[in-house]
Amino acid sequence: xxxxxxxxxxxxxxxxxxxxxxxxxxxxxxxxxxxxxxxxxxxxxxxxxxxxxxxxxxxxxxxxxxxxxxxxxxxxxxxxxxxxxxxxxxxxxxxxxxxxxxxxxxxxxxxxxxxxxxxxxxxxxxxxxxxxxxxxxxxxxxxxxxxxxxxxxxxxxxxxxxxxxxxxxxxxxxxxxxxxxxxxxxxxxxxxxxxxxxxxxxxxxxxxxxxxxxxxxxxxxxxxxxxxxxxxxxxxxxxxxxxxxxxxxxxxxxxxxxxxxxxxxxxxxxxxxxxxxxxxxxxxxxxxxxxxxxxxxxxxxxxxxxxxxxxxxxxxxxxxxxxxxxxxxxxxxxxxxxxxxxxxxxxxxxxxxxxxxxxxxxxxxxxxxxxxxxxxxxxxxxxxxxxx
Amino acid sequence: xxxxxxxxxxxxxxxxxxxxxxxxxxxxxxxxxxxxxxxxxxxxxxxxxxxxxxxxxxxxxxxxxxxxxxxxxxxxxxxxxxxxxxxxxxxxxxxxxxxxxxxxxxxxxxxxxxxxxxxxxxxxxxxxxxxxxxxxxxxxxxxxxxxxxxxxxxxxxxxxxxxxxxxxxxxxxxxxxxxxxxxxxxxxxxxxxxxxxxxxxxxxxxxxxxxxxxxxxxxxxxxxxxxxxxxxxxxxxxxxxxxxxxxxxxxxxxxxxxxxxxxxxxxxxxxxxxxxxxxxxxxxxxxxxxxxxxxxxxxxxxxxxxxxxxxxxxxxxxxxxxxxxxxx
Amino acid sequence: xxxxxxxxxxxxxxxxxxxxxxxxxxxxxxxxxxxxxxxxxxxxxxxxxxxxxxxxxxxxxxxxxxxxxxxxxxxxxxxxxxxxxxxxxxxxxxxxxxxxxxxxxxxxxxxxxxxxxxxxxxxxxxxxxxxxxxxxxxxxxxxxxxxxxxxxxxxxxxxxxxxxxxxxxxxxxxxxxxxxxxxxxxxxxxxxxxxxxxxxxxxxxxxxxxxxxxxxxxxxxxxxxxxxxxxxxxxxxxxxxxxxxxxxxxxxxxxxxxxxxxxxxxxxxxxxxxxxxxxxxxxxxxxxxxxxxxxxxxxxxxx
Amino acid sequence: xxxxxxxxxxxxxxxxxxxxxxxxxxxxxxxxxxxxxxxxxxxxxxxxxxxxxxxxxxxxxxxxxxxxxxxxxxxxxxxxxxxxxxxxxxxxxxxxxxxxxxxxxxxxxxxxxxxxxxxxxxxxxxxxxxxxxxxxxxxxxxxxxxxxxxxxxxxxxxxxxxxxxxxxxxxxxxxxxxxxxxxxxxxxxxxxxxxxxxxxxxxxxxxxxxxxxxxxxxxxxxxxxxxxxxxxxxxxxxxxxxxxxxxxxxxxxxxxxxxxxxx
Lengths: 388, 328, 303, 263
What we know:
The complex is a heterotetramer of chains A (388), B (328), C (303) and D (263).
Chain A: H1 2-16, E1 20-26, H2 33-52, E2 61-67, H3 72-84, E3 89-92, H4 96-109, E4 112-115, E5 131-133, H5 138-153, E6 157-162, H6 166-184, E7 189-195, H7 204-213, E8 217-220, H8 224-237, E9 245-248, H9 254-261, H10 263-266, E10 270-273, H11 277-280, H12 285-298, H13 305-324, H14 329-337, E11 343-345, E12 348-350, E13 364-368, E14 374-376, H15 379-382
Parallel strand pairs in A: 1-2, 1-3, 3-4, 4-5, 6-7, 6-8, 8-9, 9-10
Antiparallel strand pairs in A: 10-13, 11-12, 13-14
Chain B: H1 2-5, H2 14-34, H3 37-62, H4 71-88, H5 95-111, H6 119-139, E1 151-152, E2 158-159, E3 162-163, H7 167-189, H8 192-202, H9 204-209, H10 214-240, E4 242-243, H11 250-263, H12 268-284, H13 292-306, H14 316-319
Antiparallel strand pairs in B: 1-4, 2-3
Chain C: H1 2-32, H2 39-94, H3 102-124, E1 129-130, E2 140-143, E3 146-149, H4 150-172, H5 174-184, H6 186-191, H7 196-222, E4 224-225, H8 229-244, H9 249-269, H10 275-289
Antiparallel strand pairs in C: 1-4, 2-3
């Protein structure tokens, strides 16, 4: 039976293999051009994988790419451009404030929109029918930090630092929210809470204040360029990551930090992280295929979870359309909202809440080992690096 | 300048001007009915930047005050709308005049002590002002501005029971504003106030010696320009339904500066043309996404090389030839 | 106390960067009355050229010359390349335009700034590039709890020496007199037989070259560079220029150092997040009460 | 005698960074006369003008106009009281037409505000018409009518000087301060200018004139004040001044060649 269907499908392909248009919206210019570049490459690899397997419903996917420059205004224009191109399914974008006005347009036009790099909690609280995200939310990471990382090291004196960007501030506030009962009960102490300015180059003042606060653990919720500088300048100031456990957010890929700050400064620093493809290859077959194809085409796999989620957004669409046998966004969206596991992507099972949030986003704690590589934190192997 | 001289004067004859104006209006009115939603949205942004450009044109073009912080007033208008609408539930459209008022009022407060500064010193102070406003918005004073997250959930404007929501609605909203402002500014240009602004631009000391109250008129220009930016802020906030500080960067102020000079200082049609170019250029060059700003930079320099007076400068010498100055 | 000394040193270091860049603004402004908005991006270009030389020359000549030799080559290459770029920009984007008016020249300068930063992005990519440890002097002296990095000392000393030389050239030599004359009154200077073009070329080579040196230092000090850095530093350095009194060479140095100290101290004692607000507010206040900058001459308008 | 003095300075002093440009200077200008202020380069004549018109604030002394103190008023307020001026090098609004330049003089007498200008209310239209007509009239009288739609920077130098005069006269001043009106003009232009100035007192305009050309000064003036190093050194009729040894020593003794251009 299956063979018959496949045969029919192939026949159909040969007769009218009209491609299915899928839109991609991302920051290809502007300050976040790096993320846009990675995401686009990942999405292209995902499309190649799907197409190599015969496409969706026997039709190949064709990507329609639009740049939003990482600004809200650029986002609306890119969205309009995609809508005008007749796209019914869109993967995008990076940055919650860019996503917000674009997703409204998609919602109005009934375009199914899968978000890959926006973790603001209230994005999914708008009652939208066509909005989904393959990434987690800000508070999933904060919950992980408070409920897993802090007890792991038995830390009591907590320092939280952000950089005032939408993302970092959100994580920091969620950490405070989850810690509140523990703080009120006197089990934990918040000894430092402040912001640094991104783009600034000199953080010695903030680090001096941090040193004086004498925390057990220091959580930095911002992005890697600043985190790397903080680690470097902290090291130069004489801060010891065995005494103060340095934990960065998921926006702080260790490989990038090592490049900027050097191994000696980053060694022993940890990050809370959505699963990265490099750590998933053992676990999921699609991850292995994705990483192999990516590295064959573009060189070493990136460290961006967001770009990985972007690829998973393509797979989500492929699975869901295939499962519903429908190209109608209404049908596909209804199916996605049902909470069913639509398939196994690069980052594991893909399923969504009725609000459109990804269900069950796993987190992990990575550490920079002696060779300057990221490794899954294992107390037995890495304990000496963090003074455990 | 040589190139400008070759411009045939019949272009400026009154019937030709009227015909041209009528054709432009017809084009603007009919455009959304044959263009796609995307191009309507592009048209909206042309209108928005035209509004911002017209505001800056009063300050920079008419009076010659170097203002490289105009985005600050845009931000003030947008945030006024956002905060008052989200917190107090005041209808977005009702906030249109209020946003202009707040932006203008703040401009008056801020510019009073600095208005006497000359040329480049005023320029740096306005840059500083733009940065201060943006940083204050980011730092979220009293939890009002939402910090880097901005303010979300702005209600759609309602005009006589009609909800303004589609690109088409916004297109007409913004261009109605542009038309209104362009008309009012044209009237001002031909009045003693507009002339006095130009006297100040040409020679401040002579203007003052000829009885022009330089300080008050400069302040008036600043307030008026900021108020127009406030209007633009309201419309922008309504369109986006959210505001965040990253929309109001120094780069935006620079773009507005370029709009005025590309079009021609003190030229209303020029400013609108400048806005069209600044918005359209990156859109037309979308296929080369990564390089579009590179070309944009080159184009700015090239325009100034070939047409230093702007693309559509104001031609005073022929404006009067319609015989309006009666022989005594 | 420790914090204070640390902040003082930081402030001086950042201040040196600003002073380097501010000088370029000031030189060009003094002569042409033009705010060269592209100057910040020339500084960025210098950092990238330095990076490229270090990365590619490290294997070839690094062994033969040692770290310091490599550094010298890197600085020289960055300074030369950026000075060249400065001259090209002057020739292509300013010289045809500035006789017409100052405002078109400002737009042209903004255009060049946008062009340059996007050119850097097109050539070197949008990612942060990291200055690697191997070509950075990493030593430090430990005095009690207090650390002085060799690099910091190097930066401060270079700033003093280079800016000292420039000051000497401008204030004490015949060519310097020509520059000052051209700055005061271009037409009269031309009548006195001063080659105005030569003076402009000097400014457009010297300013960017100093900026490039600062760019390489910034790369070494913070270890990372990206294509938007020129814009950020340009804005700050321009602020420093105005603080010191635009068109005034010692003023640019004083303004730069002062801005650096102001930043470090506000960040250390008030709030890092509000730091730039304080800096810009201080600038506004200063201009309200001293409208021509700290060392700027109070010029009576000739009527 | 005192009653017919329209403009008077009492002991005005103006310093620039230690340099005393004007030193306790007194001058009294009688109504409907042409009063000249002369002196060598750098004597402080233009500074006196700038003090009277409010561009500079004097450190000491008073400026009186029709018995009222002008100190502390801004230049535009002083113009509105009835003192207009020209500049040594014409300070025209170069990128505006000659007509618009002349209309500038009327600005202070206009009343139309922001809203009435936008809405073109009837009173604003009437005012505009009046402003234009008056400006046109002055252009006619000075022979500039053919240039009315030319930009000021495009007309010959002599016409620029005349245009500045037209602009000042359009302000309907009671006192007109002229700063070297004939400087840089050729002989025929000079004659036109002199004829015109000579007729002004008859139209009720008092003239205070700074001039280097002795023919002009001697030919026009009712009274001459001589200043040097910021101080008044002599005052009298042209004849008295011509024969005053102090003046000859300080000023005329140096010969005409020095005196053509001033600073």
